[in-house]
Backbone:
C-alpha cells in the first residue's frame, strides 16, 4: 500500500493536476474520441485517483488508447486537464517496470512504406520507453 | 520580411510536398523561410509530464536559435508547431523548467523570448488574406474544399492561440482567399486517430471515416491539412483526396513546378 501512496503522489505531482477542482460533470469523457476503447474513461481517472485506487489505473489498457487530441483539456469547464493525468499514470507505469505497449519488433511488423516519420516518432514516444 | 524555419522530421521526406509548396509560395509572396541550422526532431508528441525536460531540449535549441536571429520561428507541420509553441510557453511561464534547463547546460538558458508561428498565421497576420487573394493567378473557382484542422493546431487554445478552438475559420478564410469554396463541415476539428493508427488501425480508420463522411455529406471534393499524420490516416481510407494546404496555395499562385 505504501508503494501506491508513493505512486499516487508521484502521479499527481508530474501531472500538475489538482483533482479537487473536478466537479464530475463528465464533459471530458463525453468529448473523448477514444471513449469506446477506454477501459477507464477520462473522468474515471480522477475518481479513481481521488480514492487512491492507483493499481487499477496502472494496469489499465486506457493508458494506451489516449490519442493526445486534447479535447478533454479544451472542454473541461474547470481546467482540470484529464489528459495530463492519463499521461502521468502512463509515465508512472512505464518508468519503473520498463513496460512497453509495443516492442520495436512489433512496430517493425506494422511498418508500411508510406508511413510518415511523424507517426513512428510519436509511437516511439507513446508506446515504448 | 524573413522568418526562421523549423522543418521537422517528416518534411524532408514523406511530406516533402508540404515544404516545397510553402517555399515556392513564400518567394512569390515576398518572404523567405530560413532553415535553422542543426535542428533536431521535436518528438512529434508534446511531453505532458511536468518533469519531462530532456524531451523538450530539441525544441529549446530551435527556439533559442530563432531568438538569437531575432526572427519569428515558422513551422509547417501541425505537430512541430504544437510542440514548439507549448515548449515556448513552458519556458516563458515556468521558472522551474527554465532553471532546470539552464542548470543542465547554461548555453541553453532560455526565457521564452521567441515567437512561434504557423505558416498559416504568417499568411493571415503578415501577408494578410486580402493581399493573398490579390496575388492569386489561378483562382480555385468552383472547387469545394474542406478544411481539415485536426487537433494539434487548435488545442489547448490557451497556449496555441491559433484560432477559435470550436469554430475555427483561418483555413476557410485561406480557401476563400484562393478563390475556392470552403465547405464548413462540423467534424473538421475532430481527431483522425493520430498515432493510434499504428497500434489500433481499426480505430483510426473509424475516426477518419467519420470525418470523411461528414465532409462528403456537404459535397467537399477534397480536404486540405497541415499535418502529415492526418494526411496519412485520411488518405488511407480512399474516399476523398487530401492535400497539403501549401499544394493548393502554389497552384493558385501558379508557382507549381
Ligand atoms: S486527450 Fe486522450 S483522454 Fe483526452 S479526449 Fe483526447 S483521447 Fe480522450
Ligand atoms: S470535464 Fe473537467 S470537471 Fe468535468 S468531469 Fe472531466 S475533469 Fe471533471
Residues:
Amino acid at each position: 500500500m505504501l508503494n501506491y501512496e508513493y505512486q499516487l503522489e508521484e502521479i499527481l505531482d508530474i501531472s500538475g493536476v489538482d483533482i479537487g477542482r473536478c466537479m464530475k460533470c463528465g464533459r471530458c469523457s463525453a468529448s473523448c474520441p477514444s471513449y469506446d476503447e477506454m477501459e477507464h474513461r477520462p473522468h474515471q481517472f480522477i475518481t479513481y485517483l481521488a480514492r487512491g485506487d492507483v493499481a487499477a489505473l496502472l494496469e489499465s489498457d486506457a493508458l494506451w488508447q489516449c490519442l493526445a487530441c486534447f479535447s478533454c483539456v479544451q472542454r473541461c469547464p474547470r481546467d482540470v486537464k484529464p489528459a495530463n493525468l492519463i499521461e502521468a499514470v502512463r509515465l508512472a507505469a512505464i518508468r519503473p517496470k520498463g513496460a512497453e505497449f509495443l516492442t520495436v519488433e512489433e512496430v517493425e511488423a506494422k511498418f508500411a512504406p508510406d508511413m510518415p516519420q511523424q507517426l513512428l516518432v510519436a509511437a516511439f514516444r507513446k508506446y515504448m520507453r | 520580411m524573413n522568418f526562421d524555419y523549423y522543418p521537422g522530421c517528416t518534411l524532408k521526406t514523406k511530406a516533402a510536398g508540404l515544404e516545397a509548396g510553402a517555399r515556392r509560395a513564400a518567394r512569390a509572396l515576398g518572404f523567405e523561410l530560413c532553415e535553422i541550422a542543426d535542428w533536431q526532431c521535436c518528438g512529434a508528441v508534446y511531453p505532458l509530464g511536468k518533469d519531462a525536460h530532456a524531451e523538450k531540449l530539441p525544441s529549446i535549441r530551435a527556439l533559442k536559435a530563432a531568438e538569437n536571429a531575432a526572427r519569428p520561428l515558422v513551422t509547417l507541420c501541425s505537430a512541430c508547431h504544437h510542440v514548439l509553441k507549448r515548449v515556448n510557453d513552458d519556458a516563458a511561464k515556468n521558472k522551474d523548467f527554465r532553471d532546470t534547463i539552464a542548470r543542465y547546460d547554461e548555453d541553453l538558458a532560455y526565457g521564452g523570448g521567441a515567437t512561434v508561428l504557423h505558416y498559416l498565421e504568417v499568411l493571415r497576420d503578415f501577408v494578410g488574406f486580402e493581399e493573398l487573394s490579390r496575388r492569386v493567378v489561378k483562382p480555385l473557382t468552383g472547387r469545394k474544399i474542406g478544411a481539415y484542422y485536426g487537433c494539434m493546431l487548435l488545442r489547448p487554445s490557451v497556449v496555441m492561440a491559433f484560432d477559435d478552438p470550436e469554430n475555427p475559420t483561418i483555413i476557410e478564410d485561406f480557401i476563400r482567399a484562393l478563390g475556392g469554396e470552403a465547405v464548413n463541415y462540423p467534424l473538421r476539428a475532430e481527431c483522425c486517430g493520430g498515432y493510434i493508427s499504428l497500434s489500433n488501425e481499426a480505430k483510426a480508420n473509424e475516426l477518419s471515416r467519420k470525418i470523411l463522411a461528414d465532409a462528403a455529406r456537404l459535397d467537399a471534393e477534397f480536404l486540405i491539412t497541415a499535418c502529415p499524420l492526418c494526411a496519412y490516416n485520411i488518405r488511407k481510407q480512399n474516399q476523398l483526396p487530401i492535400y497539403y494546404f501549401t499544394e493548393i496555395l502554389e497552384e493558385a499562385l501558379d508557382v507549381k513546378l
User: Anything to note?
Assistant: The radius of gyration of chain B is 18 Å.
